[in-house]
Write a structure and sequence with these properties.
There is one protein chain. The chain is α/β, with parallel strands linked by helices. The protein has a single domain, classed as NAD(P)-binding Rossmann-like Domain (Rossmann fold). 41% of the residues lie in helices and 16% in strands. The chain contains 9 helices and 7 strands; from the N terminus they run E-H-E-H-E-H-E-H-H-E-H-E-H-H-H-E. The chain has a 7-stranded parallel sheet with strand order 3-2-1-4-5-6-7, sandwiched between helices. The protein is globular. It starts with 7 loop residues before the first strand and ends in a 12-residue tail after the last strand. The structure holds nicotinamide-adenine-dinucleotide and ligand 0WE.
Length: 259
C-alpha cells in the first residue's frame, strides 16, 4: 500500500518521457494514486495515451491552458470519472522562443510578456478556480518553478518574472484555499534536460555548472522531483502550504564556490 492509495491526481504537462510531469505521474502511481493525465493539442494525444496506459491512468484528456473552454471542459470530463480531486499538478511553462534568445530587453515585447505570464503563471490559478468545486478537503495543488524567479539568469528572460508571478499566485491561492483545508505549494527544480530545455543554447554547460556549484555535486532527476511531489501530495505534508520547496541538490543555498 503506497501512501497515496485511494487518492485521485490530475497531472498536466507531459510532453515526453523526460518531462518533469512524467516523473511526477510515475511517482504518484507508484504510491498508489489514481491518475488522469492531460495533453496539449492533438499531436501529443497518442503519445500521452501510451504513457497513460503504462502508468495505469484512468483516462487522458485534452488541455490547452490558453483556452478557457478547455479548462472548463477538463473538469466536466473529470467529474464523469471522479467525484473529487485530491492532487492537481501544474507542470506547464511557456515563453515564445524568441523571448528566450539574447539579452533581456532586446528579447522582451508586450506580446511575449503577455503570453508567458498567461501560460506560465495565470494558468495555475485558472485551473484551481475551475477545480475548486471538486477539491477534496485535504487536497494538494502543486506547481513547478525555477530559481530564475528570484535571481537574474542569462537567457531565462521573461520566464523569470513569470515564475515570480507563479510563486506569488501560489501563495495567494494557499491563503485563499487554506481555510478549506486545501494546500498549495511549488517545487523549485534545478535544471533538468527536458523538451523545454533541449532547445536552449548553452543548456549543457548550465547543467554542468549547476552540478559543480551544488553541495551534492550533481544535477537532480525527474524521479527526485516526482518523489517530492508525491510527498507534497500526501498527508505526510499536511502542515505544509504556501511554500517553495527546492529540489536542486542544494544549489540555491550557495554564495561562493571554491574551484
Ligand atoms: P516539458 O517540455 O517536458 O513540459 C512543459 C509542458 O508544458 C509540456 O508538456 C507542454 O505541453 C506544456 N504546455 C506548454 N504550453 C501549454 C499550454 N498552453 N497548455 C497546456 N500545456 C502547455 O518541460 P519540463 O521541463 O518538464 O517543464 C515542466 C515545468 O517544470 C515547467 O513549468 C518548467 O518551467 C518547470 N521547470 C523546469 C526545469 C527544467 O530545467 N527542465 C526546472 C525548473 C522548473
Ligand atoms: O522553465 C524552464 C523552461 C521554460 C521554457 C522553455 C522553452 C523552450 C521552447 C519555456 N518556454 C519555452 N519555449 C520554447 O519555445 N526551465 C527552468 C528550463 C530552463 O530554461 C532556460 C534555462 C533553464 C534552466 C532558459 C534559459 C536559461 C536557463
Amino acid at each position: 500500500m503506497g501512501f497515496l492509495t485511494g487518492k485521485t491526481a490530475i497531472v498536466t504537462g507531459i510532453a515526453s518521457d523526460r518531462s518533469i510531469a512524467y516523473g511526477i505521474a510515475n511517482a504518484l502511481a507508484e504510491q498508489g494514486a489514481s491518475l488522469i493525465l492531460t495533453y496539449q493539442g492533438d499531436k501529443l494525444r497518442d503519445r500521452v495515451a501510451k504513457f497513460g496506459e503504462k502508468l495505469g491512468a484512468e483516462v487522458v484528456l485534452p488541455l490547452d491552458v490558453a483556452r478557457d473552454e478547455d479548462i472548463e471542459a477538463l473538469f466536466d470530463s473529470v467529474a464523469q470519472h471522479w467525484s473529487r480531486i485530491d492532487i492537481l499538478v501544474h507542470a506547464i511553462g511557456f515563453a515564445p522562443r524568441e523571448a528566450l534568445t539574447g539579452g533581456y530587453l532586446d528579447s522582451i515585447s508586450r506580446e511575449a510578456s503577455s503570453i508567458t505570464h498567461d501560460i506560465s503563471a495565470y494558468s495555475f490559478a485558472a485551473l484551481a478556480k475551475a477545480a475548486r468545486p471538486m477539491l477534496s478537503e485535504t487536497a494538494s495543488l502543486i506547481t513547478m518553478t525555477y530559481l530564475g524567479s528570484e535571481r537574474a539568469m542569462p537567457g531565462y528572460n521573461i520566464m523569470g518574472p513569470a515564475k515570480a508571478s507563479l510563486e506569488s499566485n501560489m501563495r495567494f491561492m494557499a491563503a485563499d484555499l487554506g481555510p478549506s483545508g486545501v494546500r498549495v505549494n511549488a517545487i523549485s527544480a534545478g535544471p533538468i534536460k527536458t523538451l523545454a530545455a533541449s532547445g536552449i543554447q548553452g543548456f549543457r554547460s548550465l547543467l554542468a555548472r549547476a552540478a559543480e556549484t551544488a553541495p551534492l555535486k550533481r544535477n537532480v532527476t525527474q524521479t527526485e522531483i516526482g518523489n517530492t511531489a508525491a510527498f507534497l501530495g500526501s498527508d505526510l505534508a499536511s502542515g505544509i502550504t504556501g511554500e517553495v520547496i527546492y529540489v536542486d541538490a542544494g544549489y540555491n543555498i550557495m554564495g561562493a564556490t571554491s574551484n
